[in-house]
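in:
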């Protein structure tokens, strides 16, 4: 295995390249990023005090057309004593190699290899169970769908699942059963066919409009373009299969927290309202789908939040972190 090296996010972070099995485009890797823990206060060391989440590992997985860059999210966990790791999946961000089709897979279960390699590098073994530490899975959008499916297939591995606007249902839920057979045929015969670009860049503009000076972020537009990466038929079919599995009901055997915006609006033309809503998903449908994840699900609706609740305007962003802190405190006290 390669060594940990400095990460693009600066001195607080390191990255590790995870070699995976090659595919038809050649060698494949994933990249694990870890946040270096803050130095404990002298009085804490003197008294031997341990912070509340000292026995917790967090694994974050990003969404579609995305990568990990959220320093504050990492600090939220490390300041409470947890070890924080983020995974740039194959063909995304730090893991994208020349000649690869960005983000392309034909089955979300393909990411089992990426997740197993990450868990092993975290010292948990490939099945995630070997560390004697609690495991929190934290996923955004498509990453939330991926981790939900993974947690359901791997019972008694995670101790909590936290989802930031998970993509659990197609934007026109009633149409999914009708388009799924067509998508399956297209994926079978022409998996790399590209759908027309429908993203007008308004979600990225909304993030820029509400940028928070107290929580600055430096985003690499090569890895997270203003308009999403090309959508290929094989990938789209994989997403619909995942949505169908959620609709049929998953069996996540640990508490789940779902953070969502209070409202949605279609991004058909620019308007200031897009700076206060989820313009990617239909949040009411996601809230309903969340209840299919398992027997213990908390849904937190945040007024004024964007699709990534932690990239919202200041007030909504602070509320998102406050809701997360409240839920984590309750979970940690009872788990």
């Amino acid at each position: 295995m390669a060594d940990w090296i400095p990460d693009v996010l600066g001195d607080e972070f390191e990255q590790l390249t995870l070699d995976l099995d090659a595919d038809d485009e050649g060698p494949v890797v994933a990249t694990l990023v870890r946040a270096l823990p803050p130095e404990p206060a002298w009085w804490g060391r003197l008294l031997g005090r341990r912070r509340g989440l000292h026995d917790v590992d967090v694994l974050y997985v990003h969404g579609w057309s995305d990568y990990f860059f959220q320093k504050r999210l990492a600090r939220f966990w490390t300041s409470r004593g947890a070890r924080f790791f983020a995974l740039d999946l194959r063909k995304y961000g730090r893991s994208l190699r020349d000649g690869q089709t960005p983000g392309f897979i034909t089955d979300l279960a393909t990411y089992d290899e990426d997740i197993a390699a990450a868990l092993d590098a975290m010292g948990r073994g490939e099945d995630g169970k070997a560390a004697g530490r609690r495991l929190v899975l934290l996923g955004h959008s498509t990453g939330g769908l991926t981790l939900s499916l993974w947690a359901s297939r791997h019972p008694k591995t995670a101790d909590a699942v936290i989802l930031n606007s998970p993509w659990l249902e197609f934007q026109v839920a009633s149409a999914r059963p009708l388009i799924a057979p067509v998508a399956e045929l297209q994926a079978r015969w022409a998996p790399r066919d590209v759908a027309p670009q429908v993203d007008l860049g308004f979600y990225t503009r909304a993030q820029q409009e509400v940028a928070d000076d107290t929580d600055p972020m430096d985003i690499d537009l090569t890895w997270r373009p203003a308009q999403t990466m090309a959508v290929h038929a094989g990938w789209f079919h994989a997403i619909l299969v995942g949505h169908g599995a959620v609709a049929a009901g998953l069996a996540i055997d640990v508490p789940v927290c779902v953070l969502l915006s209070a409202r949605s609006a279609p991004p058909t033309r620019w308007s200031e309202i897009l700076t206060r809503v989820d313009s990617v998903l239909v949040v009411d449908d996601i809230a309903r789908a969340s209840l299919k994840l398992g027997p213990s699900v908390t849904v937190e609706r945040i007024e004024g939040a964007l699709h990534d609740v932690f990239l919202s305007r200041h007030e909504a962003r602070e509320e998102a972190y406050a809701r997360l802190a409240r839920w984590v405190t309750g979970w940690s006290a009872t788990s």
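note: The chain has nine helices and nine strands.
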